[in-house]
Design goal:
Blueprint lengths: L1 E5 L4 H12 L3 E6 L7 E3 L9 H4 L4 E4 L11 H23 L7 E5 L31 H17 L6 E7 L1 E3 L6 H10 L12 E2 L1 E3 H13 L5 E5 L5 E2 H12 L9 H10 L5 H4 L7 H5 L9 H18 L1
Parallel strand pairs: 1-2, 1-4, 2-3, 4-5, 5-6, 6-10, 7-9
Antiparallel strand pairs: 8-11
Helix pairs in contact: 3-4, 5-7, 7-11
Bound molecules: NADP nicotinamide-adenine-dinucleotide phosphate.
NADP nicotinamide-adenine-dinucleotide phosphate binds next to helix 1, helix 3 and strand 7.
């Protein structure tokens, strides 16, 4: 298949590009700064020659969006919103104007669309969307608005010959440098990977291998459209999540951090505490119902596999 990945130069794009290319597909990446073969320039906002790559392709997986690992200033929040909505809209325009449109358009969304909650897991059918939770910082609602508008941009696109799926993905865990697993591992190995603000908030995650398998599954299944949760079936409280990660690295100590220490740490890392403190309890209702099985369903075993691969990678480097 010819698979086009707008925004495919980042963490998730690298995982998909690597796996889909290895599986024998022709992968083309749209980027604002092409540096190698199979990369085509676009601006993520306006139609241009790049749209020719989409015409005649089989699959589009749009991942473009300003990184969420930043301070949530007004300017950054606006850039996070615009880059997602604009890129989804223009990908829709390219598909709509193609003479041979792709069969399926997988549009990245996020598990962050669901409410901050502890009591019950969120699946697609019964889950609560976020934005109105009491006692959470006001700007958390903005992240939910970003996700809603992002999905809406895809829904509104008039692409009658192309199936549309929104990927409500949890944190994708891979051993690659600079990804979320790498950052959390670094904290765990420094002895800083303890509970944050009590650690009761849930962490949803998905192993990179299962993420790729789920994407392949959704490409193949012609009966699937709309939002789909891409998360392992067993999200767990942050304190248990970090305990298992420490165990996988053989790091016995994990200093706890209070909310204000998390604020300080997030500030130092130029990141935001929402990423640490929001309880994301998201489960893959539709995938499980459709018979999809996870090779890495439990975090302790998934963490062991990721640590083994990270160690192997470091040795070979
Ligand atoms: N990583 C996760 O675990 C995870 C989980 C759920 C959802 N997501 C979402 O999935 C998408 C991909 O995640 P990722 O971790 O691979 O993100 P990433 O590493 O930040 O990569 C995103 C890509 O988007 C492009 N981009 C950035 N700003 C842009 C802009 N203003 N206009 C157009 N393109 C822009 C960049 O490509 P160029 O600079 O090459 O143009 C970049 O490579 C993101 O939207 C993210 O929010 C990620």
């Amino acid at each position: 298949m010819k698979i086009v990945i707008p925004g495919g130069t980042g963490q998730v794009g690298t995982i998909l590009d690597r796996a889909l290319t290895a599986a024998g597909h022709e992968v083309v990446v749209l980027t604002r700064r092409p540096v190698r073969e199979r990369q085509i320039e676009w601006d993520g906002r306006t139609l241009g020659e790049w749209a020719e790559a989409i015409d005649g392709s089989d699959v589009v997986v749009n991942l473009a969006g300003r990184s969420v690992s930043c301070r949530y200033t007004a300017a950054n929040l606006r850039a996070m919103m615009d880059s997602r909505v604009d890129s989804a809209r223009v990908v829709g325009e390219a598909i709509a104007s193609a003479s041979r449109p792709p069969r399926v358009w997988l549009q990245m969304s996020t598990a962050t669309i669901y409410a901050h909650r502890f009591d019950a897991p969120n699946d697609e059918a019964t889950g609560a969307l976020g934005g109105t939770e009491p006692r959470v910082p006001g700007y958390w609602a903005y992240s939910v608005d970003i996700a809603r508008n992002w999905e809406q941009a895809q829904e509104e696109a008039e692409t009658p010959h192309t199936r549309k799926v929104a990927l409500r993905a949890a944190m994708v865990m891979s051993p690659d440098r600079g990804g979320v697993f790498d950052v959390l591992s670094w904290l765990a190995r420094l002895g800083l990977g303890g509970p944050v603000a009590g650690g009761a908030q849930y962490v949803s995650w998905i192993h990179d291998h299962d993420f790729v398998r789920a994407v392949e599954f959704l490409i193949d299944r012609d009966d699937f459209s709309g939002p789909v949760n891409l998360a392992a079936p067993a999200p767990l409280p942050q304190r248990a999540f970090m305990r298992a990660l420490r165990a996988a690295w053989g790091a016995p100590v994990g200093l706890p951090a209070t909310r204000w220490m998390a604020e300080l740490g997030a500030f130092a890392l130029r990141s935001d505490t929402e990423l640490l403190l929001k309880s994301r309890r998201v489960v893959p209702g539709r995938l499980l119902e459709a018979g999809f099985t996870f090779d890495h369903a439990r975090w302790p075993q998934a963490a062991e596999d990721l640590v083994r691969r990270a160690r192997g990678g470091r040795r070979s480097r």
